[in-house]
Amino acid sequence: MRPISQKVNGVLYEKEGETALLLDDAAAPLFLRYAFVIQGPEDPIFPAFLLDDWGREIGKLALYQWVAENGNLFPRAEIFGYELDGRETQVFLRALELYARYPCYVYPDKDAPVERGRLLRHILIPEAIAATPAKTKRPDNPHLPLARARLSWWHINPAHLFENGYQKV
Q1: Number of CB atoms found within 10 A of residue 15's CB
Q2: What is the pLDDT of residues 88-141, one digit of tens each?
Q3: pLDDT by residue (tens digit) across 51-76?
Q4: How far, in Å, CA of 145 to CA of 151, rounded?
């Protein structure tokens, strides 16, 4: 069993203790994992796959779309995955906060253990003409978990990252 990951290309930066991902198609691949959160304590759960009420297995990034469309209809569906400390777990959908934005963690490789992830707070979109960082809207594509992640989105000139307080991780 392996947590679901999404490959992106980019470079990690940190500013004021928060991790940011500068998207860059020419950079090395990184892997994002999106967590569901438990109602109440909001503990993250990193899914590997889901079993619906009829025992059908749903995995890969399609799991997030299935939950968005069917989560309220199938509260007994179970997600199998990992807790933040790496322990395997399983939870019913009814235990999850289905409308919460997904905490997003970034990993250097697809096989990295869950507990080695860095909580991602910002996505930086390179824009050469941006004089200063400018907050922007997240993508509208509801099918991608990245669009539903708990992140802020910024346009930034990569040449001015250090001037704006970003340090490469």
Answers
A1: 16
A2: 999 999 999 999 999 999 999 999 999 999 999 999 999 989 888 999 998 777
A3: 998 889 999 999 999 999 999 999 99
A4: 11
Q: Give the angle 94-97-99 at the CA atoms, nearest 5°.
A: 120
One-letter amino acid identity for 56?
R
Residue of 164, 149, 33, 30 whose CA lies nearest to 86: 33
Q: What is the pLDDT of residue 9?
A: 97
Contacts of 115 (CB under 8 A, 6+ apart): 84, 85, 86
In three-state secondary structure terms, 93 is helix
61, burial (CB in 10 Å: exposed 0-12, middle 13-18, buried 19+): middle
First-to-last alpha carbon distance for the chain, in angstroms, is 29
Backbone conformation region of residue 60, classed left if phi is above 0, alpha if psi is from -120 to 50, else beta:
left
Q: What is the DSSP pairing of strand 57-59 with strand 44-51?
A: antiparallel
Count of alpha carbons within 13 angstroms of residue 80, beta-carbon side: 13
Amino acid residing at 81 = G
Judge whether 122 and 20 are in contact, CB under 8 Å: yes
Report the C-alpha gap between 59 and 50 in whole angstroms.
6
